[in-house]
TrEMBL record:
Coiled coil: none annotated. This is Neprosin PEP catalytic domain-containing protein. Residues 27-106 form the Neprosin PEP catalytic domain. It comes from the Eukaryota. Pfam families: Neprosin, Neprosin_AP.
């Protein structure tokens, strides 16, 4: 699929992904589950959290520069980060792009 700005997003059928050519994944049964853990309110426990609102007002960056804003949430070695980036070297223009990146140990 191509956006009106020329960005390409490719979709691959789940069972045709190159990773499944790996011998240990041959004939493997996959379970589709959403990774969500629900918490229940308890008056004696403290829950921390995070959030952000971002507004992007057309930032400009020279070809050798980039501009970005992000939020990163860590739990030991695992993390997820979200934000936006303008990177002419990477994308060839000054449009802001949203990104999500994560690392999970398991």
């Amino acid at each position: 699929m191509q956006t009106e700005h020329g960005d390409l997003y490719d979709c691959v059928d789940f069972y045709e992904q190159p990773a499944f050519d790996y011998p240990l994944l041959q004939n493997h049964a996959f379970r589709y589950e959403v990774a969500v853990v629900r918490t229940k309110f308890s008056g004696n426990k403290k829950y921390d959290g995070g959030g952000m609102n971002i507004t992007i007002e057309g930032p400009k960056a020279k070809f050798s520069q980039y501009s970005m804003g992000q939020m990163k949430v860590l739990n030991g070695p695992d993390y997820i980060q979200v934000g936006w980036m303008v990177n002419p070297t990477l994308y060839g223009d000054n449009r802001a792009r949203f990104f999500v990146y994560h690392k999970a140990s398991h």
